[in-house]
Design a protein that fits this description.
Peptidase_A8, aspartic-type endopeptidase activity, 53% helix, single chain, alpha+beta, EC 3.4.23.36
């Protein structure tokens, strides 16, 4: 069959692997970066916009990792967390390439984690910090501010855990 007759330029083995979610990974990275751009362009640092009784938009900078872990360090953590995210993304992409398409929950979870990791790596490289802007709270208790990339990582991890408990794959 000629190249013009192919449905896609993606190799057949990739179409049958877990990496068939690549389009969602790309879309989520764009959504993450676009949402952060909107915040950077329209909100002063530390400003707050009340959206719902339990949800605000805020603009904060996270120089560390989850829950601002190591954010008070001298700057080495920027490259440390960038390297970790790149390594994890590469490992997950390789895993996605090797896993069958039928492992839907795990593959989607890995893809979401890759999208989130890359979204936050882009921030660390461009700004030296991650832009966080989603603030969920109950009364005076606030969950640490997060972003679309962080949401992808959490949902992805949840899907992988779900797959681990509820998949019907036979043991090898």
């Amino acid at each position: 069959m000629s190249a013009a007759g192919n449905k896609s330029s993606i190799p057949q083995q990739w179409q049958q692997s877990g990496w068939h979610w690549w389009w969602l990974v790309a879309l989520l990275i764009v959504a993450d970066q676009f949402s952060k751009w909107l915040i950077l362009e329209n909100m002063p640092l530390y400003s707050r916009i009340n959206v719902l009784p339990f949800f605000d938009l805020v603009y904060v900078r996270n120089y560390g990792a989850a829950f601002s872990f190591l954010s008070d360090q001298s700057g080495w953590q920027r490259w440390f967390f960038t390297a970790i995210a790149v390594v994890i993304s590469v490992v997950l992409i390789v895993m996605l390439r090797r896993q069958p398409k039928s492992m839907k929950a795990a593959n989607l979870g890995f893809g979401l984690i890759v999208a989130g990791a890359i979204g936050n790596v882009i921030d660390r490289i461009n700004y030296g910090y991650v832009v966080d802007f989603l603030d969920v709270y109950v009364g005076t208790y606030h969950w640490p501010a997060f972003n679309v990339a962080d949401s992808c990582i959490v949902i992805g991890a949840g899907l992988i855990i779900f797959d681990g408990f509820f998949s019907n794959r036979p043991d090898k």
